[in-house]
Amino acid sequence: MKNRILAVMPLVSVLFFLVAGLYWGQWVLGLTAFLLIPLSWIILTGKPLKRLSEIMPFICLVLFLWLGFGLNLWHPGWMVFFLIPLVNIIVERRINARKIVGIIVTGAYIGIGLATGQWHPTWIMFLLIPIINTIFFPQRHAYINLNKDMFRAKFKDIIIEHEQRKPKDDDDF
Hints:
membrane, transmembrane helix, single chain, extended, 2 domains, Apolipoprotein N-acyltransferase
């Protein structure tokens, strides 16, 4: 059944495109229907609940475009992007300090924006998320430790041993 749905999804997308364009006059909204093709492939191949966390940015983008182009709701529509970390927290069923930093900064942004109406200059506070996480909650494998011996071994493997290898003679017919 999954293969049948995947096979018919391009036709369904064309149908949505034509209905949105011909009946509603929303050709740009109809173009977003073609995003259903990769979305259906992602959802229907593998475990859907596990995949939901991975495809949530794509789903939010589709929802945002549909709200914007179809209903002209660009301003409240951007809030669908808050679903990305929320779904990730729900699917993984755990929350760590790095995620809490993102939640606190986002909450502060929304609070300051609603209280003062200063949405534009306060978006800069989102730069605090990678700064705070890098300083206080670094990831274990985020850094590469290069020492002199490792550099010499890589140099020897790539440069010296590569030149000493015999090239293949591909001219023989």
